[in-house]
Amino acid sequence: MVVRRVLLGLAGAALVLLAFVAGYATYPLLHQSSLAALPVAGEPSPAEADMSAYWQVWRLLDRDYFGSKPDTQQRIYGAIAGMVQTFGDPYTFFVEPQPRELERDQLAGKFGGIGASLEQTAEGWLLQPLPDQPAAQAGILGGDMLLMVDGIEITAQTASDRIIALVRGEPGTQVELVVRRAGNDGLAQQLAFRLTRAEIVTPSIEWRLLDDNPQTADVGYIRQTIFSERSAQEMREAVTALQAAGAHRYIWDLRGNPGGLLTIAVEMADMWLDEGVILIEEKADGLRKNYTATAGELVPNAGLVLIVDGASASASEIVAGALHDHGRAQLIGTRTYGKGSVQLIHELSDQSSLHVTNAQWLTPSGRQISGQGLLPDIVVAEDEDPLAAAIAALPSVQQAKK
């Protein structure tokens, strides 16, 4: 039996990739599109352009197509997506309202939900409640099969993002689930639950002390999965906790991290730098903007190495490139993805969004990352655990303090 698990109460990295293809670095979600400002001199507006062929195709499909037809909104979104694809840039794309909501939750690092994961089986979607969250508190048990959400039927063929969008909502609002529960006697019963959504926090960083060996008991290990709005604060919390536990040296693991918010990446690189350029942003017209570090480090003179791989992209590469160019950290692992462009996110009137590549970024030394990535100082085969190499590359406490 094929089982597929997705996170309903906690957003998973796979959801990011649904919208972002592979890695991203975006500005905060502040770009509201103004239609009045969009027309460009010399170019026809949509109302002025010759759209006769478009409407001919619309009517011919209405008249001649055999089978079920997409509704008007689906056709409009399809037309928009097709127009955006003609620009030939995988990072310039259109996102419909439902996946856009999931994307926004992922970058925010929190959302309104019930605290449960989903397992897809041939029979349907099974719920797995998380401890002390609304689903568990309401009495839902692991293995309950989800049948309905607010009166909408859920089947084994229902897409996971569709279910997630139905279940999530503003904290404090309610959602009704109908489930099927197998009994000990082999008979199933159907149960209905009305749950109040709570704010579910999705941490982007986890940490621990490598104290299972006396030689590494002063090494703090930090794993980061995305650059969300909460990541900078989580890094401060991680380092504070690790310092209290006795950490003097650090390993920052960015494997599989597709990126996130540009501003957060710059802020987090700044935590480990005392001065200098963090990032060079280059526009199409050649104009450049430098992002520079502010005085003061989170942990002055602490030894630091970064672990990266082929899925470390965009914002991850901003951080890795900055710390490497300044000699602040060595890179361990495999070559990074090589995504060096920056996108603006335009929120549209119906809550859909348009991502537009607006600039490219270079490392402090002027290296271009797009299509090339960053080659680690110490390359570790993909089938090997790079942690041992990272530990070996860390300077001693005495060396770090010099």
Architecture overview:
The protein contains eleven helices and 23 strands. The chain has 402 residues and is of the alpha/beta class. The protein has two domains: 110-201, Pdz3 Domain (Roll); 205-401, Alpha-Beta Complex (2-enoyl-CoA Hydratase, Chain A, domain 1), CATH 3.90.226. The strands form five sheets. Strands 1, 6, 7, 8, 9, 10 and 11 form a seven-stranded antiparallel beta sheet that branches. Strands 3, 4, 17, 18, 21 and 22 form a six-stranded mixed beta sheet that branches. A six-stranded mixed beta sheet has the order 13-14-15-19-20-23, sandwiched between helices. Helix 4 crosses helix 6. It is flat.
- How would you sum up the major sheet? 7 strands, antiparallel
Determine the number of helices (DSSP H or I, runs of at least 4 residues): 11
CATH evolutionary superfamily of the largest domain: 2-enoyl-CoA Hydratase, Chain A, domain 1
* CATH architecture assignment name of the largest domain: Alpha-Beta Complex
Structurally, how many domains make up the residues? 2
Structural class by sheet pairing and helices: alpha/beta
Shape: flat
Report the C-alpha radius of gyration, rounded: 24 Å
CATH class of the largest domain: Alpha Beta
Helix percent band:
25-40%
CATH topology of the largest domain: 2-enoyl-CoA Hydratase, Chain A, domain 1
Briefly say what this structure is.
The chain is an alpha/beta fold. The chain is built from eleven helices and 23 strands.
Short descriptors:
6-stranded mixed sheet, alpha/beta, flat, 402 residues, 2-enoyl-CoA Hydratase, Chain A, domain 1, Pdz3 Domain, disordered N terminus
